[in-house]
Amino acid sequence: MASTLNVLIITFNCARQLLEPEIFARRLANALPDSQHPDLVLLSLQEIAPIAYSFLGGSYLVPYFQRFHHAVHLAGKALGGAQYVNIITRNVGMTACMAFVLEEHRENIQWIRAGGVGVGVQEMGNKGAVGLRLGYTIFNGDALELTFVAAHLAPMEEALQRRNEDWANIVRGLVFTPTTTKDTTNPTTQIEETEPLLPNHPDHTNQQPHGLYTPASHLLLAGDLNYRTSNTRPRGTTTHLTFPNPTHQDLTPFLQTDQLTRELTANRTCHGLSEAPITFPPTYKYSKKAQRRAAASEDETTTWEWAKHRWPSWCDRILYLDLPEWMKQEKPNVEIKVKKYTALPLMPTSDHRPVIAVMRIPLQTIPAPGERQDDADENDD
Questions:
Q1: Residue-wise pLDDT tens digits, 231-266
Q2: Residue 208 CB partners (closer than 8 Å, separation 6+)
């Protein structure tokens, strides 16, 4: 029996375009380790559709979500025929999340809570976050809690402070509430709204904290966080000649000026979260020429075609909350492992690269702080 939960996290800025599922699925399957199928697939999607469709929602978004549903199906098929069930799809404006579970593990999903918050212009949701929190059954019948947040923060090099404020507003405003049968019904297929996608487990979530940070839950954050490698836009007609390319792949100068790394170190954003080492090229902003090239070939060994008016940056990131110190001290051999953290090849429909992380999370509940000590004190009487 497995001792870890194998989780695939994907973040992609869709640029308001319909996905090409065959291309996406092939590139995703090629990037994944062959040893084990993901138990959970979590998608963070930004600019999922044109702004009018995103705010109207409903049937306007169905074709956009259908493409990702099909891509996950095709990727699973390429990985030995793994079949996935879409357990929840939610959006707030242009930001969305989708969660899939292996068909044979569907019964392990005990409950789901979800929430959303808009930030940006009048907090309408052109930027913002969607979150889900789920209970996954482990060996003794308890539920492992996992929180996943899909986010899109303020753009532009000079908007560093706005990005930090967006994160603070997400932490303050994101509240998780129990989902209904209708909430968890797959919006991308013709399933009756009365058919639940979750097994009939009792919902104990009313006893759970409703905020983003809770001691009992793992936390994963993925999205277009929009942190850049400069505080100002490129100036001059030759600045783009200094941008990285495959023939001179030293990314160190750009990583050293990465805003998110600096703000994380200073504890000014994404508080307490960690990130695996970055070994892939910047994920934004690729030119129209690059997108046309991506439609014809996946070969990126000769050139990276950058837009000249933006600094190449790692806008698209995946972060996680490490195990708490009290759990590490009690169980030093238990750890969260990031097996892979990389960017997929550029898609022909976006100026962002998709980014994926494959993580293995221990199938153990997180004890409350001091729980073991409290138990010991009671036994001393």
A1: 999 998 888 888 988 876 789 999 999 999 999 999
A2: 113, 133, 145, 176, 214, 216
CA 244 to CA 114: how far, in whole Å? 40
Tell me the pLDDT tens digit for each residue of 133-182: 999 999 888 999 999 999 999 999 999 999 999 999 999 999 999 986 44
Q: Which among 117, 77, 84 has a CA at the least distance from the CA of 99?
A: 84
Angle between helices 62-78 and 21-31 (to 10 degrees): 40
Going by C-alpha positions, the residue among 322, 278, 338, 321 that lies closest to residue 7 is 338
DSSP secondary structure, 5-66, as one string:
EEEEEEEEE-TTS---HHHHHHHHHHHS-SS---SEEEEEEES-S-HHHHHH-GGGTHHHHH
Place of tokens 């074709």: 63
Both tokens assigned to 361: 């999370």
DSSP single-letter state for residue 270: S
For residue 363, the tally of other CB atoms under 10 A from its CB is 19
The residues with which 324 forms a beta bridge, in sequence order, are none
Those residues with Cβ within 8 angstroms of residue 68's Cβ, 6 or more apart along the chain or in another chain = 19, 21, 24, 43, 45, 98
